[in-house]
Amino acid sequence: MIVLKTEQEIALIREACQITASIFAAVKPEIKAGVSTYELDQIVYRTIVSQNARPAFLNYGDPPFPGSACISINEEVVHGIPRKNRYLKNGDIVSIDVGAEYNGYFGDACRTFLVGDVRSEWQKLVEVTEQSFWKGIKQVKKGNRLGDIGHAVQTHCEKHGFGVIRDLTGHGIGANLHEDPNLLNYGRAGRGLRLEVGMVMCLEPMITEDSFHIQILPDQWTIVTADRKAAAHYENTFAITEKGVEILTLTAGEREQYAEQLSQIENQGWA
Ligand code: MG
């Protein structure tokens, strides 16, 4: 069942999302060779609780997820567990996926960062993954359907020869971290549910260097590419309002970086 959100609910989700975005500003300067994923997770934890929010991923699921962030390096796609003995190395790519609950509402977002000098193929993977989010989000417009979003993400990534993971998807969000509908990163244009005001969802392309097949590691959380080639992940929570599409989990710096794209979607009018 899809829960459409009121303006008041979106205002509450926005607050949770702004806390979520603040995590990236806090963690970004600390991403360098030699830092452990546990140390990064501690920064995430402190950033969330210092704003009277709760880390949404901590103790989530079964077995309970033991971190505040999912930190996934290179061939790890998502759900990497922060560890004291896992260090970033020069040349890694690392995705940091975070969620915060505040006043009963959730925000969820992910960035993939470069550690030092990253090989150009991986730089391109990270870049194209991020671009594909923007290709998808531009399809969030009146009259369009869920399939238009996934189709745009898929087309862009496959054009560059990358794989689009099928077994993991974006999702609705609100008073729960994961709500209906699933928001696929692939699909057929013009198919699926019609987009409407009050939908709040996470669009999160998970893109691989080559094959899109994945495996889960024995720790029961970490998901890796089956061929152990690299993967990248980029995610934002967004809301459809009567004004247009609002991306709720951008930092101030990112809003500046993407000013042009934002101007195209934020005031398009929907009502
Ligand atoms: Mg998500």
Question: Can you describe what's shown?
Answer:
The protein has 271 residues and is of the alpha+beta class. It has a single domain (7-266), classed as Creatinase/methionine aminopeptidase superfamily (Creatine Amidinohydrolase), CATH 3.90.230.10. 30% of the residues lie in helices and 24% in strands. The chain is built from six helices and 15 strands. The protein has helices spanning 7-27, 37-49, 120-137, 146-159, 252-257, 259-266; strands at residues 54-55, 69-73, 76-78, 93-102, 105-114, 163-164, 170-172, 179-183, 200-203, 206-208, 214-216, 223-225, 231-233, 236-240, 245-247. Strands 8-7-9-14-15 form a five-stranded antiparallel β-sheet. The longest helix is centred in the first third of the chain and has 21 residues, at 7-27. The chain is globular, with a radius of gyration of 17 Å. The chain starts with 6 loop residues before the first helix and ends in a 5-residue tail after the last helix. The relative contact order is 0.18. Magnesium ion binds next to loops. The site of magnesium ion has 5 residues, from loops.
Task: Outline the secondary-structure elements.
Layout: H1 7-27, H2 37-49, E1 54-55, E2 69-73, E3 76-78, E4 93-102, E5 105-114, H3 120-137, H4 146-159, E6 163-164, E7 170-172, E8 179-183, E9 200-203, E10 206-208, E11 214-216, E12 223-225, E13 231-233, E14 236-240, E15 245-247, H5 252-257, H6 259-266
Antiparallel strand pairs: 1-4, 2-4, 3-12, 4-5, 6-10, 7-8, 7-9, 9-14, 10-13, 11-12, 14-15
Helix pairs in contact: 1-2, 3-4
The structure holds magnesium ion.
